[in-house]
Design a protein that fits this description.
By secondary structure, the chain is of the alpha+beta class. It has one domain. Helices cover 33% and strands 20% of the residues. The strands form three sheets. Strands 5-6-7-8-9-10 form a six-stranded mixed sheet, sandwiched between helices. A two-stranded antiparallel sheet has the order 1-2. Strand 8 and strand 9 form a beta hairpin. Helix 1 crosses helix 2. The protein starts with a helix and ends with a helix.
């Protein structure tokens, strides 16, 4: 599976470079960190099941993205940038995670929303990369994608540290990168947090006591069928 996806990425990268009148680097497309088996499997399945498509400019079209007429309008979502030409590695992992939620965990497309990144930094407008909502609109699962398991562990440690401090302003926080995510957790009170990277994943049940969150490790993310019974 990894070899198939690597070949597909190299071909699509060459097409994107050609579209923008740029030469393909002599070394070809750099994929760092390397693809994992689960990413390759679910990214390719997502393409096959038409969960998303990638055009010759490297842009992604998908029903999982906010509608173009939403207010405010959603940011564009890309698999490749063109200045300079490169793979947006976390976006690939996000797309694979979205496909996995639907094809492995049983969620419907209308439950899952991809959150495009702001152009000025990697954090999304709402703080997390994907949201899983009930049909009534309540956020059940927050999903965050990182480049490595080490970054996942830092995310969880920062969320726990913010919670232990109690309410505090962003400028008074020692964890500015993940403080917005803590605030978003408090505002939405999800049931689960799923953090993924190519080399690992962490699933946590989120328990609430007032404004404090308790993150309880789980072996895996429960399927939709179990959550709908809770």
């Amino acid at each position: 599976m990894k070899a198939l996806l690597e070949a597909w990425l190299q071909d699509r990268f060459a097409a994107t470079c050609e579209t923008f009148g740029q030469r393909v680097p002599l070394s070809g497309l750099r994929i760092s960190p390397p693809l994992s088996e689960w990413e390759a499997e679910y990214f390719l399945l997502g393409l096959k099941e038409n969960l998303f498509a990638v055009d010759e400019q490297g842009g992604v079209a998908s029903e999982l993205l906010a509608a173009a007429d939403a207010s405010p309008p959603p940011a564009s979502y890309r698999l490749f940038s063109h200045e300079p030409p490169r793979l947006l590695r976390e976006n690939l992992c996000q797309l694979a995670a979205a496909a996995r939620l639907i094809l492995e965990r049983g969620w419907l497309k209308r439950h899952v929303t991809l959150q495009p990144s702001r152009p000025e930094h990697r954090a999304t407008a709402d703080g997390f990369d994907l949201l899983v909502r009930s049909l009534a609109g309540r956020i059940l699962i927050l999903v965050e994608v990182k480049r490595s398991r080490l970054e996942l562990e830092k995310l969880i440690a920062d969320l726990r540290a913010c919670s232990r401090r109690g309410p505090h302003a962003p400028e008074d926080c020692g964890f500015p990168l993940n403080h917005p995510r803590h605030e978003f957790c408090l505002a939405t009170q999800p049931d689960y947090l799923w953090a993924l990277a190519p080399d690992g994943e962490i699933c946590l049940e989120v328990r609430w006591e007032g404004n404090a969150l308790d993150l309880e490790p789980l072996a895996s993310l429960p399927p939709r069928s179990r959550l709908e019974l809770e």
